[in-house]
Specification:
201 residues, alpha+beta, two-stranded parallel ribbon, 24% helix, rod-shaped
Amino acid sequence: MSASSLERTARPRRSRTRSRTVNGRPALAVSTLKPHQYDLRPACASLVCPDCKTWVPITGLQAKKPKLVPHDTGRAGKAPAVRCQGSNRLVTVDVTVRKWEERLTDGHSETVHRRRTTVRRKPKVAVAPAVSQIAAQKQMPADDERSDGCPLWLLREMKWASTESAVRDAETRRAQLPAGEAPLGAPPVPLKTLHPERRTS
């Protein structure tokens, strides 16, 4: 693969440049930017380019015509080499370093003392169950009758097995009563079928 076929990437942004090219656009006034969007210290004079929204060095800050250095829109070595339209744009430094530091300090103090807004969330309301779900809950056994994963029919069989012997004993004792004896105060049981006659007027 030849070197000409490789895609060019953005070049590193130099802090100083010897280019005499001047952008034809109007000069960018530093006062139109926010204090945190530019740095007027001589060692690292730079600002956020309004076109590509990245930090770009300012060359010739002590000279008569400071301007932004030529730069690409993307990150150096990763993004494609696309030249930003803000390259070589003149910069009007109409803010002193002392005034800039004061504005930066005041903005920082206001941000630090700003209180957070308390967000009160609405309580979550439980969704009402459907009619079929309510009917299913009524048919389910009580908590003391439930077992670990046992089906309902098996629980019924187990309950019947625990009471079967007592039921059999009661049936046996009932069958051992003497013939003709009945509970006190109970009416006699008729032995033949009764056929009531209709009254004639």
